[in-house]
């Protein structure tokens, strides 16, 4: 029934609320799970003027991987 499931997250509690449900569905249907980190540039040091490499560098410098908690839960 499901082949691919996308979990967009901004790290908020609301976004985290869907993780268990999405992981359960992916497991039940042997679906591939993708996690997408969504940034609200109005509330972030990341801006629309930055190119891809600058965004990745900014995330790397923060020492956090925003998708890690979801990927850990999926494993």
TrEMBL record:
Pfam families: Usp (PF00582). InterPro entries: Rossmann-like_a/b/a_fold, UspA. Residues 1-64 form the UspA domain. This is Universal stress protein UspA related nucleotide-binding protein. The lineage of its organism: Archaea, Methanobacteriati, Methanobacteriota, Stenosarchaea group, Halobacteria.
């Amino acid at each position: 029934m499901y082949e691919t499931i996308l979990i967009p997250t901004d790290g908020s509690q609301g976004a985290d609320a869907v993780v268990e449900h999405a992981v359960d569905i992916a497991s039940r249907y042997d679906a591939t799970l993708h996690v997408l980190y969504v940034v609200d540039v109005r509330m972030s040091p990341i801006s629309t003027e930055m190119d891809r490499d600058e965004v990745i560098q900014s995330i790397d410098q923060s020492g956090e991987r925003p998708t890690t908690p979801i990927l850990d839960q999926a494993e």
